[in-house]
Amino acid sequence: MALIPGSVPANVDGLxxxxxxxxxxxxxxxxxxxxxxxxxxxxxxxxxNVKIEYESYEVxxxxxxxxxxAAIVILxxxxxxxxxxxxxxxxxxxxxxxxxxxxxxxxxxxxxxxxLFSIANAIKVTAFLWTPYWLYGEVMCYMFSxxxxxxxxxxxxxxxxxxxxxxxxxxxxFKAGLGKRMMYFLLLLNVIGALLIVIPLLLNIxxxxxxxxxxxxxxxxxxxxIWSDEAAKIAYxxxxxxxxxxxxxxxxxxxxxxxxxxxxxSLSAQIQISSAHExxxxxxxxxxxxxxxxxxxxxxxxxxxxFPNKLRHVITDTSGNENLVSWTVFLxxxxxxxxxxxxxxxxxxxxxxxxxxxxxxxxRKLFCCYKADINRRDNSIANGxxxxxxxx
Length: 392
Description:
By secondary structure, the chain is mainly alpha-helical. Helix content is 69%, strand content 4%. The longest helix has 45 residues. The protein is globular.
């Protein structure tokens, strides 16, 4: 590519700005690409001092936004860590013993993967509080680049498995439901599928060097996704959108529609055999409706917080223009994406009264308040009995 008079945009401060203008990946951004020589009129673009001056300005300009972004993502991760730990540790009890239904077990599995996502995301963005560059080395570059998307992929797979379990248990209650072996098989299949489909992404992750000072010994790094084959990039992006959003979300919506139809419209849900059976059926119907309400909010939250991220990937990859979405909008989308692991525990605590009650008891136990409350109540009862005896 040779520059011709008048082809250089106005206010160009360096070669990197020029490459961004023509949508050229950083790895291919060289003076030789533009046939720039020391005697050409565009030689100033390759001047080290000019380029470094521009990069320093760019870093300073974006670092304030980066810091806000990192702080919000860390906040979402902290909420996700403590919230999902609560979901894992706080389980319903019946007659003093912990008892989990099949879909509650799956919710705990979902919380475990959301917890791992939260931890990985918090570690990844912590350095961005003070620098836009990658500080964790090449191995961690590959590790975090794979772990972050895998977390969301596995999550939607688990939500789909929960929908299947609820469909079999509510719509076909007299048939064999989702057995433990089948549940484990679907979970294993979900994890293996996510690990396999992340391979093309990892093959195109690159730790690139970037000079930002006049000191030749100082080199900063960026962990980037750089594809040499644009057609493969587009195909991969659409494959992810189909497998990990369009198909599972559509399937879940269809299953939920059938479940709600049974819960609210089916005559079989209103069968009354005796007074005892009537109460038992009414309680089962109420529990199923409540669980489906919670699961519906979980699905809606997942769609709201992850769809913008997936749509951005498809649009930018298909257009071939990474700058189609502004830097600020990109960070806003990423911030939304990080909250999909923090919102589920909030939904459980707002809707599920049993979870809320067990959570309060667990927190009190952790802070040594629960025994104090019991002792205070026992003392109050004892004092009341003593006063009654004295007055008698």
